[in-house]
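Blinded run. Sample ID left blank on purpose so nobody reads anything into the name before looking at the predicted structure. Input follows.
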Amino acid sequence: MSGELGGKTLFISGGSRGIGLAIALRAARDGANVALIAKTAEPHPKLDGTVYTAAEAIEGAGGKALPIVGDIRDEQQVFAAVEQAAERFGGIDVCVNNASAINLAGTEALEMKRYDLMQDINTRGTFVVSKACIPHLKRAENPHVLTLSPPLLLDPKWLKGHVGYTIAKYGMSMCTLGMAAELADDGVAFNSLWPRTIIATAAVQNLLGGDEAMRRSRRPEIVADAAHAIVTRPSRECTGNLFLAEDVLAEEGVTDLSRYSYDGADAEPIPDLFVD
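Blinded prediction complete.
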């Protein structure tokens, strides 16, 4: 059965696992077309999934998939991937900026190549993927750009521990606010989405606390369900927001979040970064 995104086309960066894949699968259940650009072509020892296994899952969920191996740091690869997706599916309706790099080192400890990686994937990647999609989105019926980035809180506590990472993530949210105003007359919506609590992803498992942190995480589906709610709203009425996933779900009437707990336990979820 076709849902609200049936026949629509999503272009997702970094969609081979985690939150990006969950958003793709939620759209696929509606019968959407999903183009994925991701770097993982071969299985990785610490990371589940490749762009090809993600595509299989999308097809299995009822969608149509176009897996593209590419690096969003390369402008030409991004534009080529977007054109390929638009040609295959006849346009692009939703752009999801999910690709992100994280390194929580302090200023002295952060190598500049790691700083550059975060800037290139997070802020610059969001900018170039959005830029490439905009001409197609302008022709769409209900065009949305959704970026996985946080509220802009200028309390120094969110900067002092990891200035490099915070700058790179805040840059993504600044793209949202700036482009929402810039493209308002064209009816292209730009919103950001961030979870109140940490999400069970490879980053949490490998970088933020291992099994204990996973136990106190929520599943990526909480972000995917919120994303689905946002990108199905009228684009001219829903733009320029830095949403928290739980607040979006509450607006949709979903207040019992127990279904999203990682292992079904009642463990108190750990608040995410950039959430007071």
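Unblinding after everyone has recorded impressions. Residues 128 and 150 are 19 Å apart (CA to CA).
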